[in-house]
Amino acid sequence: MIQTISRPRDDRVLAGVCSGLARAGGLDPVLVRLAWVLFTFFGGSGILAYLLCWVIIPDETGERASLPVVLLVLLFGVPFACGLMFAMCGLVFAFFGALVPN
What is the per-residue burial (b if ≥16 Cβ within 10 Å, else e) of 74-98? Predict the structure, then answer.
């Protein structure tokens, strides 16, 4: 039987994304939240991925995110993720540039 992913209303911290993924995978929601925080700190993609999941995954009633959340993702999430990726690339180039002798 295929388990559908939905955002529950009773076990939410922010939007219920981690709790919904944990229920679908049979995991503890705290572990999923911890993994999400690690993705955010060590890759920067966790914030954008969370916002996208908030828009894509419906809640228990089948409703998707409202228009303000979609606008939030488009106006802030995508540019933030792009800026974060450029900053990470700059740090990597600066680190490896410091390792290479002149």
Answer: eeebeeebeebeeeeeeeeeeeeee
